[in-house]
Write a structure and sequence with these properties.
By secondary structure, the chain is an alpha/beta fold. It is 39% helix and 22% strand. Helix 2 links the parallel strand 1 and strand 2.
Amino acid sequence: MAVHSHNHARTHDGIDWSSQLNARRRADELDAEAHRVVARRLVRTLPDNPTVLDVGCGTGGMSVALVEALSARGGGTVVLVDAVPEMLDAATGSARSAASYETDTTRATVRIRPVLADLATERPAEIAGAAQLVWASNVVHHLPDQRAAVSGLVEAVAPGGWLALAEGGLSGKFLPFDLGVGEPGLQDRLLTARAQWFVRMRENITDAVRMHGGWNVALADAGLVDVTAFSYLIDHPAPAKQAVRDWAVDHLKWYGEAAGDLMHPADRRTVRQLLDPQDPAFLGLRDDVFMLLANTVYLGRKQ
């Protein structure tokens, strides 16, 4: 695959995703167990040898879980779609490693098909064909017209198949209330800044269309039936392993870069302290850092 310069990796939301490769991989590792449970739940009702589409696959955390879930029930095809070459390469490598794993009893075959595509301009049905399950996690909200994007995903679902849209939930918390530096309650102010950042991110997308109402309504309006939802927790309590502390550092760094100008100068100073490996308050060495978040998955069936 050709090497793309960083500026090509910016998507409609203006985010340079390729620079977040390592951070995303660390998050995948911490999400892995929760993803396995969700993947097993989603593939349970699918027909034999199904095609599953992972749209906006990122570094492949859920791709791997889907591959493992399909392997356990006899095989299938997983199509990986992403707009960022570096992400797609990472996901493809991880998914192919998972596809070749064997248990004592079975040697399932799961085919992996990577597709580099921009969902704002390309239709999933045309690039990937019909799938019995389409999984799209936190990708639709980065696209200009979210309802049109949902319709595009529905188009790629085979009759009787499912769309699983992971959007919303509860933003991740990772800091104790009083860190001993700065004003108490930094976590809540970070979440406020993130919400403001999100509104600004949407407003800055060219041709952005506001989406009113909830995701269940969007799925029903797109023609799906039996629309339901469930949420799953990612919970790594303190004292946490080093991977959680590294994730917290990544996460706070993202806040500082993306939403820093939306924070009070005093909070910006605190964030700098928490990110400084030479500072006694450095997050990467704290025993009271944790990871707690909830993701919601909206499900709908195509008749």
